[in-house]
Amino acid sequence: MIRVAIVGTGGIAGACHLPALRAQAHRAEVVAAVDVDEARVKAFCAEHRIPVAYTSLEAMLAAERPNLVHICTPPHLHAAQATECLRAGAWVWIEKPVCRSLAEYDLISSAELDAFASVVAQHRFGSGVRHLRAIAPELGRALVALCVTAWYRDHAYFDVPWRGKWETEGGGPTMGHGIHQMDVLLSVLGEWTEVRAMTGTLDRRVQTEDLSMAIVRFSSGAMASVVNSVLSPREESYLRFDFSAATVELRHLYGYRNADWTSASPLWNPPEDVPSSHEAQLAELLDAFERGEAPPMSGPEGRQALELITGLYASAFMGKPVFRSDLTVDHPFYHRLDGGTWS
C-alpha cells in the first residue's frame, strides 16, 4: 500500500482529495493528516477515519514516513512544505497554485532528489482534453483560441485572511482561478512566446487584481485571448479552439464531461467519458509512483501555467509585451508576481 498523508484540512482536502483517495483505496492508504489547528485536524481525522492527527509536518514525516503527501494548505506555505517533504523522501501532490513564483517552483524542483513533486491540474486528465490533444494534428493548423474564466466571488469570499494578498495568495484570479483554463490552453497549444496584458481591481477589496485580460502568442503562430474574472454573476468556464479545419468548444464551470464539449468535426468522438477530476489525475500519479517514474504535471510541465501567469502579470505591471525568454532568474517577476521582493 502507498502511504499517504494530507497536509491542510480545509475545504479542498475533504471535497476533492479524499474522494480521489477513496477511489484508489485498493493501493493508497491515508495514514495521517496535518493542520496547525489542532481541533480542526482532529475533527477531520475523526470524520474521515484517518488514524493519526498532527499539528507539525516535521513530526508527521518523522513518525509516519509517508510515500506521498497531498499539500492542501494556502499558497504561501507550499514551497517550504513541499521541499520539506521531498527532502524526507516523500512525493508531493500540490494544490494549485503550486507556489507564489517561478523562484519558489525552481526551489521545489531542486529538492527532487529521491522523490517527485506534481501539481494539481485535474482538467488535463478528462477524456475531452485527452481526445483533443490526440486529434489536434488532424484538425489542421491551430489558429485562434479563447480562454475565459468568468467566475463570481463576493466580498465575503475574501474575508479569509490569506486571500487577495500578494504575500499569502501570490496573485488574484489569474493565479488562483483562471489557472485551470490556462493550463488546458497550454496543454493543447504548447509553448507560448509573447503576452500582452492588463489587470484591474474594479470592485473587490483586495490587494491583487479581480480581473485580467491578455493576448497570448504561441510558438506555432496561434493567438489566444485570455480573460480571468471573479466579477461575473453568470459564471462560466469557456475554451474555444479554432483550427484550420474545425472548431472545438468547451463550456462548463468547475469540471467537465464529454457532453460539455462540442465540435462539428467527424473526428470528435472521444472513445471514453472520463470527467475532469482529482481522481483521474491521482490515478496517473500513483501509476507513476509504482513505476518509479516522474509523474504527469511535474518538472517543466508543472511549471507551464505559472510561467504564463508570470508573463501576464509582468506585462500588466510594466505596460509592455513580455516574452517567455525574458523570464530568467534576474527578471523581477521571477521572484514575485507583483515585481517586488519577499520580506
From TrEMBL:
InterPro entries: Gfo/Idh/MocA-like_OxRdtase_N, Gfo/Idh/MocA_Oxidoreductase, GFO_IDH_MocA-like_dom, NAD(P)-bd_dom_sf
Organism: Acrocarpospora pleiomorpha
Gene Ontology molecular-function annotations: nucleotide binding
Superkingdom, natural source: Bacteria
Segments forming domain Gfo/Idh/MocA-like oxidoreductase N-terminal: 2-106
Protein's UniProt name: Oxidoreductase
Residue span(s) of domain GFO/IDH/MocA-like oxidoreductase: 138-240
